[in-house]
């Protein structure tokens, strides 16, 4: 079968995209607006870029109703700061609560029953219940259209990481203790630590 994405409605092309690129890690992104209201939302178009400097990126899509910017993107454009909180199994339910469309003046930390922790370098709060936090300053935003289904690539430099002591040993993070969760297609998620195998890279 051959399919030209540009010949499809964007929602149909989106289904092919999320059904092909998986599992996807989840960036639980906390931001703050110009008036100090906290915002928290998950994004599964998320990955690392490089280690020197340490850079990460995520891609918030435009709202499917009218093509408007999501609060996370608007806040980062206004402040130039955000925190990526890593999602483990323990916070899957409250993470899902924040995926709903709330008004800009609603604090998703409170709506989901999560605890705010002040960051050291940036203004947005961290999620206490997450085991890994990345305090980021904005490096660049690349925008791809303004219509429904379009999106932006947000690139951030990680200025400081917070890692729960129980996860950290010998300079590494224990996957078995982090219990990361990945996004599949539709409403399906996967437990990334429960079924793994080792494959040594050939030299």
Can you characterise this structure?
By secondary structure, the protein is an alpha+beta fold. It has five helices and 14 strands. The protein has helices at residues 10-20, 71-79, 92-97, 108-112, 175-178, and strands at 24-25, 27-32, 38-43, 46-51, 54-58, 81-86, 116-117, 126-127, 132-144, 151-163, 168-169, 172-173, 181-183, 189-191. The strands form four sheets. It has a seven-stranded antiparallel sheet, with helices on one face. A three-stranded antiparallel sheet has the order 1-13-14, with no helix packed on it. Strand 2 (27-32) and strand 3 (38-43) form a beta hairpin. The longest helix has 11 residues, at 10-20. The radius of gyration is 17 Å and the shape is globular. The protein starts with 9 loop residues before the first helix and ends in a 12-residue tail after the last strand. The mean pLDDT is 95.
The class by helix and strand makeup works out as alpha+beta
Summarize the main sheet.
Answer: 7 strands, antiparallel
Number of E-state strands? 14
Helix content: 10-25%
- What is the average of the pLDDT values? 95
Radius of gyration: 17 Å
C-alpha geometry: globular
Order of helices and strands: HEEEEEHEHHEEEEEEHEE
What is the percentage of strand-forming residues?
Answer: 25-35%
N-to-C CA distance = 36 Å
Number of helices: 5
Low-confidence spans: pLDDT under 50, at least 5 residues? none
Strand order of the largest sheet: 3-2-6-9-10-5-4
Family: Belongs to the flavoredoxin family.
Protein name: Flavin reductase family protein
Cofactor: FMN
Pfam family, one: Flavin_Reduct
């Amino acid at each position: 079968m051959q399919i030209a994405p540009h010949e499809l409605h964007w929602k149909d092309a989106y289904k092919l995209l999320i059904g092909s690129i998986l599992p996807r890690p989840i960036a639980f992104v906390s931001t703050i607006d110009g008036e100090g209201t906290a915002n928290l939302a998950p994004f599964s178009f998320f990955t690392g870029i490089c280690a020197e400097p340490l850079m990460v990126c995520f891609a918030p899509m435009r709202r499917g109703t009218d093509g408007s910017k999501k609060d996370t993107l608007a806040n980062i454009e206004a402040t130039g700061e955000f925190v990526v909180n890593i999602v483990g199994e323990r916070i899957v339910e409250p993470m899902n609560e924040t995926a709903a469309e709330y008004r800009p003046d609603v604090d998703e930390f409170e709506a989901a029953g999560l605890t705010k922790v002040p960051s050291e370098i940036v203004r947005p709060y961290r999620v206490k219940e997450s085991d890994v936090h990345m305090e980021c300053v904005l490096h660049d935003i690349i925008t791809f259209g303004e219509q429904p289904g379009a999106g932006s690539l947000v690139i951030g430099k990680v200025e400081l990481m917070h890692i729960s002591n129980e996860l950290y040993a010998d300079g590494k993070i224990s996957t078995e203790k982090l219990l990361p969760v990945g996004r599949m297609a539709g409403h399906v998620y996967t437990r990334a630590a429960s079924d793994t195998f080792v494959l040594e890279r050939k030299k």
